[in-house]
Amino acid sequence: MYCAYLKTVKTTATKNLQLLAVKRTELSHPEYQIFNEDSNELITQVKGDILYLNPPYNGREYGSYYHLLNTIALYDIDFEPRGKAGLRPYNTSKFCLRSEVENGMIDLLQK
């Protein structure tokens, strides 16, 4: 879990980490597409044979758990962490809101 707060830093976390960008031509399947959008909007813009859904299964928002990975993926070198966990701003998914999850899933599946 990436949102956990530790009172002391583990020794393994102090090692240097080097991230290298992967060039699209270096991948074995260059026909991939990556999206970072609301699934209920994206579903109207793409076509395919298989749909894999992995919505949050409880009220815990993914944005708070994966903020470090999101910062890396966005290559956001100007991001300044806030608070104890260093969270970045994120939008709350309708799939994490009890009052919206049912209608959100019905809407997605109908589209």
Polypeptide structure, described:
There is one protein chain. It is flat and about 50 Å long. The chain has 111 residues and is mainly alpha-helical. It has one domain. It has four helices and no strands. The model has no long low-confidence stretch (mean pLDDT 79).
The multimeric state of the shown protein is single chain
Q: Outline the biggest β-sheet.
A: none
Structural class: mainly alpha
The number of distinct helices, counting runs of at least 4 residues, comes to: 4
Distance between the termini: 33 Å
Q: Any idea what the shape is?
A: flat
Order of helices and strands: HHHH
Percentage of helical residues? Answer: 10-25%
Low-confidence stretches: none
DSSP E strands, number: 0
Query: How large is the share of residues in beta strands?
Result: under 5%
User: How many domain units?
Assistant: 1
Residue-averaged pLDDT, rounded?
A: 79
Taking Cα atoms only, what radius of gyration do you get, to the nearest Å?
17 Å
Question: Could you give a short description of this structure?
Answer:
Helix content is 23%, strand content 0%. With 111 residues, the chain is an all-alpha fold.
Layout of SSEs?
Layout: H1 39-42, H2 62-65, H3 67-73, H4 101-110
